[in-house]
Amino acid sequence: MPAYHSQYNEGDYQSVGNMFLLPIKTKFRGNAPFADSSTDDIIDEALDLFRANCLFRNFEIKGNADRVLIYLILFISQCLGSINKLTPQGEALKTLNTLAVSNFSIPSDPAFPLNAMYQAPTDKFQTGKRRVL
């Protein structure tokens, strides 16, 4: 059974390194374009495909949106790893808020586990854009 790939691979989006800068549903300004609130964005897609894709040993990358999907799956895994079933809801929220504002490794950082799959930014503009992905 093949892994599930992102529906955004076929789109025409700005590329930073070899990752797409995809639209997201948010109320806050940032580098990402705004997504229509009635459709799923890349974050919704990552949450929907998380369980199925994290069980696969191999994942063939079919486009730049798949790299974003892999990155989000790694972040979701770290979130779930930082809490467990016995963690009270209030404590879990504090832990996840702390994790959300902490420095999570990004592609091209020495501590990022899958650097071989990601292209390093080519200039300072792309480095700044990738930092806020």
Automatic annotation (TrEMBL):
Q: Which GO terms describe its biological process?
A: Arp2/3 complex-mediated actin nucleation; regulation of actin filament polymerization
* Recorded GO CC terms: Arp2/3 protein complex
- Gene3D superfamilies assigned: Actin-related protein 2/3 complex subunit 3
Q: Which domain of life is it from?
A: Eukaryota
**What keywords are assigned to this protein?**
Actin-binding, Cytoplasm, Cytoskeleton
Citing just one GO molecular function, the answer is: actin binding
Pfam families in the cross-refs: P21-Arc
Q: Where in the cell is it found?
A: Cytoplasm, Cytoskeleton
What family does this chain come from, according to its entry? Belongs to the ARPC3 family.
PANTHER family (alphabetical)? ARP2/3 COMPLEX 21 KD SUBUNIT
Q: What is this protein called?
A: Actin-related protein 2/3 complex subunit 3
Q: What is the lineage of its organism?
A: Eukaryota, Fungi, Fungi incertae sedis, Mucoromycota, Mucoromycotina
Gene symbol here is PARPA_11458.1 scaffold 44122
